[in-house]
Amino acid sequence: MPSARPSRRPGTSWTDCGRPSRACTAPVVRSPRRSGRHTRGWNRSTGGGRSSSTACPSTCSGTGTNWTASTRPGCGPRSGTGRCGRSCGVSDRPVVVVGAGPVGMAAALFLARHGVASVVLEAAARRETVGSRSICVQRDVLDLLERIGVGARLARAGVTWTTGRIFYREHEVVTMRLPASEPGAFPPFVNIGQTEVERELEARVRAEPLVDLRYGQRVVCLEQDGSGVRVETPGGVVAGSHCVAADGHRSAVRGLLGLEFAGRSFGDRFLISDIRADLGFDVPERRFYFDPPWNPGRQVLLHPQPDSVWRIDWQVADDVTLDLDAMVRRIVPGPYEAVWSSVYRFHQRLAERFVVGRTLLAGDAAHVMSPFGARGMNSGLFDAENAAWKIALDRCGRGGPGLLESYDAERRAAAVENLRVTGRTMRFLVPATDEEHAHRRSVLERAVRDESVRDRIDSGRLSEPFWYVDSPLTTVAGPLDDFPREAGAVRPPVPGVLCPDAALPDGTRLRSRFGPSFTLLTASESAVPGMSVLRPPGTLAAALGIGAEGAALVRPDGYLAAVFPSAPSPAALTAAARRASGYVPST
């Protein structure tokens, strides 16, 4: 097919961009079999090809050569989510977000919080409205979602559980009790179906003038160069400054970029169903059954949901006829209503890179993993916020040359860790070798009578925020040899860790006070010109390790960029702020 000359106006028809005409000279990224996977003209290691835009006005929420915070006059009025009232970018083009799942819509809302407009392109004609899919939202993710106005709504609408039980045959071998929440804090986990999460996010998107959501827009071509991106759908072309690809595990954008999605798929089938029934539980709780009499040799997971709905996951053999009613009757003797069901196989896959030029992969487009531990959607939402604040600074010309690439360094490392944890879980749940089968059987049988082996039972290590102690943006305070990296470990408040939350004397919580800019936490009364400052009470300052004179620099996503036990010099503070904005010192 001959190539057509693209219109200068975004949104008009463009029939084919497979071969650029003289008027379309940007590198075309189309075939996943292309040997040069990373768009021509882009330097993988240095971020070459970025726009050399001049610095924008100081209303931007970031740091440049002369660092100032978004609290300076001129930022414009803020909405209820704390975003700037107007974009601070030198580019008037929006960010193109591909995919209107929870990660894509969250990315658009986080961009809006920074005053950045976006166009969200969703291939489906409409949003799915039935079925739980991902159901478990972790406390820190609720904090994250509250920054875009939906965390508290989801917490109220969902089911809170603090008890989890694990059974082997007829024996209860593990009882897990999560700590109660502090006053004003979100619960450790809230169960609510992904469709409800999407419903709340879409309501916020519809109310946000900086987000343009378009259904029925299948991406067929992607171009990018140092000045921006152009994304083609059958309905036309959208030009943008950057692209966030959140279009799921079959990502069209990932394919157009030619990125490998290496990993493995598990052969065992799992039947998941949502049923409405009274199971006789006094309080909602999670239950995991190994080798129950009603599913011998395999496992079943029960999770509570709102409105008396229960999510049930069965592991089933390939030769088993899937009779949903018969399977439910083994668990539910009384009446029940079938709400939704699906059959799936688990995958563990990772994109070879999360950043190519001005395109960032997020959520299932970048990584897929088994759902045991609820690490999929939760980690994808951390992807969304990480991508948004970095794109916002990059648009301003205030992000350093290492800022966009740091998304790959941070979020790919998080995905690698999640895949390590969930991979270990799947080796326990779905043993592939005789040795793995024997190990699982030995652990479960010994756990019936020996409490010391019960922590070896792996039914899923629950989702937790990743740590960026190895990030190029982090000003490291000291040796990391003793930093706890195991799943579920308590992380000390060192640079690279999500800033701990705490109650403040005025009844608010610390994280709720973080705006879209960098924030300095210090108990010192000394002035810090041009910087957003919060003064924590003495007990909190001591817990953070900053005492009466020290300081902690918090990134726009709530992570600690630097911690100073004593009063930092202006030069040290500026260096940490610049580093956290992508001006990484050369080594």
* Largest beta-sheet characterization: 7 strands, mixed
Q: State the shape.
A: globular
Radius of gyration based on Cα positions: 24 Å
CATH class category label of the largest domain? Alpha Beta
Distance between the termini: 49 Å
Spatial arrangement of strands, main beta sheet? 7-6-16-17-18-15-19
Walk me through the topology.
Elements: E1 28-29, E2 95-98, H1 102-113, E3 118-121, E4 136-138, H2 139-146, H3 151-157, E5 159-160, E6 163-168, E7 171-177, E8 189-191, H4 194-207, E9 211-214, E10 221-225, E11 228-233, E12 236-240, E13 243-245, H5 252-256, E14 261-265, E15 269-276, E16 286-290, E17 299-304, E18 309-316, H6 324-329, E19 337-344, E20 347-351, E21 355-356, E22 359-361, E23 367-368, H7 376-396, H8 403-429, H9 434-447, E24 519-521, E25 532-534, H10 538-544, E26 551-554, E27 560-564, H11 570-580
Parallel strand pairs: 2-3, 2-13, 3-9, 6-16, 13-22, 24-25
Antiparallel strand pairs: 1-10, 4-8, 5-8, 6-7, 10-11, 11-12, 14-20, 15-18, 15-19, 16-17, 17-18, 20-23, 21-22, 24-26, 26-27
Helix pairs in contact: 1-4, 1-7, 2-3, 7-8
Region (Disordered): 1-86
InterPro entries: FAD-bd (IPR002938), FAD/NAD-bd_sf (IPR036188), PheA/TfdB_FAD_monoxygenase (IPR050631)
Domain FAD-binding: 94-419
Task: Tell me about this structure.
The chain has 587 residues and is α+β, with helices and mostly antiparallel strands. The protein folds into three domains: 28-127 and 196-259 and 352-416, FAD/NAD(P)-binding domain (3-Layer(bba) Sandwich), CATH 3.50.50.60; 136-192 and 265-348, D-Amino Acid Oxidase, Chain A, domain 2; 467-587, Glutaredoxin. 22% of the residues lie in helices and 21% in strands. The strands form six sheets. A seven-stranded mixed β-sheet has the order 7-6-16-17-18-15-19. Helix 1 links the parallel strand 2 (95-98) and strand 3. Helix 1 (102-113) packs parallel to helix 4 (194-207), helix 1 (102-113) runs parallel beside helix 7 and helix 2 crosses helix 3 (151-157). Mean pLDDT is 84; it is low at 1-90.
